Amino acid sequence: MRKAVWRPVVAWVCVVVMGSAAWAQSAESLSVPVAPPAIAAMGAAAAPAPAALVVAPPVVAPPVPAPLTRPGLVPQASLNGADTAWMMTSTALVLLMTLPGIALFYGGMVRKKSVINTMATVVAVAALVSLLWFMLGYSLAFTPGSGWLGGSSRFWFEGLDYLKEAGKVSVSHIAPNIPESVYAMFQLTFAIITPALIVGAFVERMKFSAMVWFVGLWSLLVYAPVAHWVWEPGGWIAQMGALDFAGGTVVHVNAGVAGLVCAYVLGPRRGYGREPFEPFNLGLTMAGAGLLWVGWFGFNAGSAVAADGRAGLAMLVTHIAAAAGAMAWMLAEWVVRRRPSLLGLCSGLVAGLVAITPAAGFVTPAAAVVFGGGAGLACYWGATGLKRLLGADDSLDVFGVHGIGGIVGALLTGLLASPAVSGAQGSVFTQAVATFAVLIYSGVVSAALLLLIGKVIGLRVDEAGEQTGLDITQHRERIGT
Questions:
Q1: CATH superfamily for domain 82-475
Q2: Domain locations in the chain?
Q3: DSSP 207-237
Q4: Which helix (H) or strand (E) holds 168?
Q5: Per-residue confidence in pLDDT tens, the chain, 481 aa
Q6: Roughly how many angstroms between the first and final C-alpha of the chain, as a whole number?
Q7: Residue 462 DSSP code
Q8: What number of other Cβ atoms are within 10 A of residue 359's Cβ?
Q9: Best CA proximity match to 320, nearest among 300, 336, 303, 338
Q10: Count of CB atoms within 10 A of residue 98's CB?
Q11: Beta bridge partners of 72
Q12: 3-state class of 163 per DSSP?
């Protein structure tokens, strides 16, 4: 009987114990058990904490480096490969504009007896300016100094380093995403083409030796300071807020007024206005103009210093402006002279390219038509009516195309710059002040250099040498038969 009584009791005890164990197991999976302090302390030493209690260390973001205010070394990994590749390509395109672009463009327009001299002058300018840029020019233009001139920290390219083992490379504070070597080379191509443009104003009459002295001194005393004023963040024109995306004032206004001064100081070519000056080969001129058109994509789109949307827009507006300039000049010539010409089409496309240069990163494609069309008409007048009013033998219309086109482009940039494109707000008054400052400075210093060189070694070849042609008298070479 006792056995009959205890059996159900034992069964119920087993059921309760097993049920309690099952409930405890399920509760453990749903919540963290709270143990008495003594037991918890003992367990902490004997077993690892549950995974849910492991707290990950806080993620600390790497410090953001302060923006560079001068050239300096950065980790190689901080460079942008796409930007670097695009800037190297742009550099090659801009150099192509001078060699052989300008050499062909100008060589085809001069008389046969001075073609070699014209081309040799362009090659000599490229070589001379390259060495001066390496020695002094780059530092004077693109390092911090005063508002008027850069410093000496990059003389002889000192500090322009690539340190493979340390993983460091020098960059410019203006272009921190690409190696400074690429940026310095890109800007060198601008320093080369600017005095090369001036050559068109004094062809067929200037001594080669005088040209070498003039270009060398002009590169250091005019181009480098003006580039610093406009493009180095501490330059006084940059501080004023003037807009010049790719060289409307630094390159074209600067070269245009220097060319006009050269034409005045040297005087006209013998026979100018009394006998026809037949161009040697307009086919060469057209080939040179084509190289300028293509190379200008590097000139303008490369000035974005990045492979981005702004560079793409700059390329597009450059092409549209060139086409509009060619058509505007062609139509003007058709109305005035009753026929279009190849030389007019080439001159018009260059006029459109010149005008859009200061605005390429600031305007819309529709505005580019205004730039190109306006410059085509203005530069046609500059190379014809204005040229007669000025009375200067600007042989290949350097001021008429580059000077007038640069002025038109600079002023239109102030009027048509779109804040939606770049965030920059244009001002016609500010653009006019910057343009006028470059005109005066470049004109005065260019005149002083020419007068000094004229006193020391003379500027012009003699009458017999000019009559024979500079190819023979300056180089003992001739082109063709």
A1: Ammonium transporter AmtB like domains (1.10.3430.10)
A2: 82-475
A3: -HHHHHHHHHHHIIIIIHHHHHHHHSTTSHH
A4: strand 168-171
A5: 334 433 433 344 343 334 443 333 333 333 333 334 333 333 433 444 444 555 666 666 556 567 888 999 999 999 999 999 999 999 999 999 999 999 999 999 999 999 999 999 999 999 999 999 999 999 999 999 999 999 999 999 999 999 999 999 999 999 999 999 999 999 999 999 999 999 999 999 999 999 999 999 999 999 999 999 999 999 999 999 999 999 999 999 999 999 999 999 999 999 998 988 999 999 999 999 999 999 999 999 999 999 999 999 999 999 999 999 999 999 999 999 999 999 999 999 999 999 999 999 999 999 999 999 999 999 999 999 999 999 999 999 999 999 999 999 999 999 999 999 999 999 999 999 999 999 999 999 999 999 999 999 999 999 999 999 999 999 999 998 6
A6: 143
A7: -
A8: 35
A9: 300
A10: 26
A11: 171
A12: strand
With H, G, I as helix, E, B as strand and everything else as coil, classify residue 75.
strand
Tell me how far CA of residue 398 lies from CA of 123, 258, 323, 401, 402, in angstroms: 18, 9, 20, 6, 5
Q: CB–CB of 143/171 below 8 Å? A: no
Residue whose tokens read 């004229």: 454
Neighbouring CB atoms inside 10 A of 355's CB total 36
Q: Give CA 461 to chain center in angstroms.
A: 36
Question: What are 472-479's contacts with CB under 8 Å, separation 24+?
Answer: 472/113, 474/117, 474/120, 474/207, 474/208, 475/116, 475/117, 475/120, 475/208, 477/116, 478/113, 478/116, 479/112, 479/115, 479/116, 479/280
Are residues 402 and 256 in contact, defined by beta-carbon separation less than 8 angstroms?
Answer: yes
Contacts for 390 with CB less than 8 Å, ≥ 6 apart: 260, 399
pTM of the model: 0.86
Locate 414 and state its tokens: 């102030």
Token couple for 210: 């005088």
Question: Which tokens sit at 287?
Answer: 């080939």
**Tokens 């460091």, residue located:** 168
